[in-house]
Amino acid sequence: GVFYERYHSLEDIYYWINKTSREHSDMVKVILIGSSSEKRPLYVLKLSGKREEEVNRAMWMDCGIHAREWIAPAFCMWFVNYALAFYNQNTEITEMLNKMDIYILTVMNPDGYKYTWTTDRMWRKNRSENKDSYCAGVDLNRNFDANWCTKGASDDPCDPTYCGQFPESEPETQAVAKFLRSHKDTVKLYLSIHSYSQMLLFPYSCSYNEIPNHNELFELVKEASTKIRRYYRNNYKYGSGAKTIYLAPGGSDDWAYDLGIKYSFTFELQDRGQYGFLLPPSFIPQACNEALLAAKVIALHVINKT
Ligand SMILES: Nc1ncc(C[C@H](C[SeH])C(=O)O)cc1Cl
Ligand SMILES: [Zn+2]
Ligand SMILES: [Zn+2]
Ligand SMILES: [Zn+2]
Ligand SMILES: [Zn+2]
User: Fold this and answer.
1) Cα(63) to centroid of ligand 2, in Å?
2) Domain span including residue 143
3) What is the pLDDT of residue 53?
4) Looking at ligand 1, which residue's alpha carbon is closest to its atom 8?
5) Which of 118, 184, 259, 306 is most buried (most C-beta within 10 Å)?
6) Cα 268 to middle of ligand 5, angstroms
7) Quick check: helix, strand or coil at residue 276?
8) Which of 194, 237, 277 is the pocket-test mutation for ligand 1 (most atoms within 8 Å of CB)?
């Protein structure tokens, strides 16, 4: 519906989280995993199929780690709606929900997201106050403990890729890292949704070293990219982060991989720069369908292999 083809304010997103869990209490649970530096709650939606037995497999998807990348939270919301609407109708989503729990963090950086609605549309970081600097904010995707603050991140609090005072210095990073550490035995797949540039990336971004299952993940993103080109006539680049986009440390996908989540990806959604972060709402349906297709290819492979 039209609701999922628009961008929403932070307040609307919180209302939507509450409404969705209330209206789908059979399949949806809300989990509070922590709070932001401005004390906003970080809510994870846990989606499960209508099944008796507990499954020991899960996937995690976060959106909105970077405030200006509005298509990401829009995709998380669109995905939840799609999963609930087509469960028991679409074979792939039914298989996904019957074989694994799906944890969705719709807005990982609520303070930054709010700031892009009120003050600076191009803001990227969170809004924590940096001591000894009048500049605020840490790049949450440089704050994870993965070759932290080496080449590709900045130690300047005024820089958009500021790594923070130490790994996991930020409450948002702490909340995600704590949740994944405590669920690392069941979470088999990690997805982090970003924009823009249309890329399907996997570890490492923090080094040029190849991961042991490089070929397996490469084949997955190649298959996903091929399908997107065939069905939607759109091109997504794919490969390891360091080679495909840039060398950068402290990212969530690299950290999740080293934690033991061997299927770990970052999606860079539409577009390729025409509108960039300001992707018009009319592009939301296709951008989300493309991301859904890639997520399905990867999730179904993970179900068969784990
Ligand atoms: N591990 C990573 N995975 C993906 C990226 C690309 C995103 C794209 Se907005 C970023 O720069 O934070 C960056 C890193 Cl450090
Ligand atoms: Zn709204
Ligand atoms: Zn329901
Ligand atoms: Zn990003
Ligand atoms: Zn990006």
Assistant:
1) 17
2) 2-305
3) 80
4) 194
5) 259
6) 6
7) helix
8) 194
Please indicate whether residue 248, judged by its CB atom, sits closer than 6 Å to ligand 1.
Answer: yes
Q: Answer yes or no: is the ipTM higher than 0.90.
A: yes
* DSSP assignment string, 237-273: EEEEHHHHT----S-HHHHHHHHT--EEEEEEES-SS
Q: What tokens appear for 56 in the block?
A: 């020991």
Structure tokens at 306: 């784990």
CB 301 near ligand 1, within 6 Å: no
Q: Which stretches of the chain score pLDDT less than 50?
A: none
Overall number of domains in the chain: 1
3-state secondary structure of 169: coil
The whole model's pTM is what?
0.98
Ligand 1 neighbour 201 (Cβ under 6 A): yes
Q: Which residues are catalytic?
A: 268
Question: pLDDT tens for residues 241-265?
Answer: 999 999 999 999 999 999 999 999 9
The CATH number of the domain where 256 resides is what?
3.40.630.10
